[in-house]
Write a structure and sequence with these properties.
Blueprint: H1 4-9, E1 15-17, H2 26-34, E2 39-42, H3 48-61, E3 66-71, H4 77-86, E4 91-95, H5 100-108, E5 112-117, H6 120-128, E6 134-137, E7 143-144, H7 150-160, E8 165-168, H8 174-182, E9 187-190, H9 192-195, H10 204-212, E10 218-221, E11 229-232, H11 235-245, H12 250-257, H13 260-265, H14 290-306
Parallel strand pairs: 1-9, 2-3, 3-4, 4-5, 5-6, 6-8, 8-9
Antiparallel strand pairs: 7-11, 10-11
């Protein structure tokens, strides 16, 4: 399938794997890229040296394009931005800030810059700043979220900018893929579906919890702090929401979640850790290789898009 997204990124299928912290490692990124999509290494809050190592290991597993997702609030964001250039990475997605300060350096190195946005205003700002495309991410997503749904956000962003729009949030199969294109997107980004990929290094207890999850099993914490996060309900979210309701201050809440994602992803503590996942978790039924996931989505999605109603 050819779209502006596949042409810009040099990939076969307009499917991008989300740059999830602790989840989007070189193993998953390389597997997605080898399967025809675009794999991303999630820098999260990691140091620049770790990101460099991840990039180098990904190069050993794939000769296909892959990228890095950089959270601009990372204390080492400046160093990571340079690592991306030094290592010859050609795609970067950004979140939690404005990548303007790095744009000249990245553009000079031929890096395609794709910010993740949660509003029309931010999408327009990113286009003016030189972004090659934007990921319009709805509130259905797992992890850090905005407030507008994918169904409402994607068409408004598509109407507001001339650069390609990639839809994210609540997309896990061919139906979501087709719907995103009908809304004006030219590609999709998936997170939760790839968390349970065979090549994902996520702890088996984390994967099992997502596969077991139902449509109403996610909760949003952090609304009182201005940093809402969607994850699967567990003991930690219950205690966090109780503290929020009681008016706990930011530091008390922050202390509770410090290291909690790693606790769930790496250690398998799905009771006290943060099990980030989108509302689409109820459609994730089993663990599959990345190629199988992408092939299923493309086959179903293309059939729906080609169907005459």
């Amino acid at each position: 399938m050819k779209t502006r997204v596949t042409e810009i990124l040099g990939i076969e299928c307009p499917i991008i794997q989300g740059g999830m912290a602790w989840v989007a490692t070189y193993q998953l990124a390389a597997a997605v890229s080898n399967a025809g999509g675009l794999g991303l290494i999630g820098a999260g809050g990691a140091p620049a040296s770790f990101v460099r190592e991840q990039i180098q290991k990904a190069k050993e597993l794939t000769d296909k394009p892959f990228g890095v997702n950089i959270m601009l609030m990372n204390p080492e964001a400046d160093e990571i931005a340079k690592v991306i250039v030094d290592e010859g990475v050609k795609v970067v997605t950004t979140g939690a800030g404005n990548p303007a300060k790095y744009m000249e350096m990245w553009k000079a190195a031929g890096v395609k810059v794709i910010p993740v946005v949660a509003s029309v205003a931010l999408a327009k700002l990113m286009e003016r700043g030189g972004a090659d495309a934007v990921v319009a991410e709805g509130t259905e997503s797992g992890g850090h979220i905005g407030s507008t749904t994918t169904m409402a956000l994607v068409p408004q962003v598509a109407d507001a900018v001339s650069i390609p729009v990639i839809a994210a949030g609540g997309i896990a199969d061919g139906r979501g893929f087709a719907a995103a294109f009908m809304l004006g997107a030219e590609g999709v980004q998936l997170g939760t579906r790839f968390v349970v990929a065979t090549e994902s290094i996520v702890h088996e207890k984390y994967k099992a919890m997502l596969i077991k999850a139902k449509d109403i099993d996610s909760a949003v914490t952090g609304l009182s702090t201005g940093h809402p996060v969607r994850s699967i309900r567990n003991k930690m979210t219950k205690e966090y929401l109780k503290l929020e309701k009681e008016g706990a201050d930011f530091m008390e809440l922050e202390k509770m979640t410090l290291g909690s994602l790693r606790k769930a992803v790496v250690e398998g503590d799905v009771i006290n850790g943060t099990v980030m996942a989108g509302q689409i978790a109820g459609l994730v039924k089993k663990e599959q290789p990345c190629k199988e996931i992408i092939d299923e989505i493309m086959s179903e999605g293309m059939e729906l898009l080609n169907k005459t109603f």
